[in-house]
Amino acid sequence: MTIDQLGRNERLRLMKFICSFAWADLDVHQKERAFVKRMLKRLKLDDEVAEQVRGWLEVPPPPDEVDPTDIPPRHRKLFLDAIRETIEADGVVVSEEREAFELLQELMR
Question: ∠ CA 36-94-76 to the nearest 5 degrees?
Answer without folding.
Answer: 55
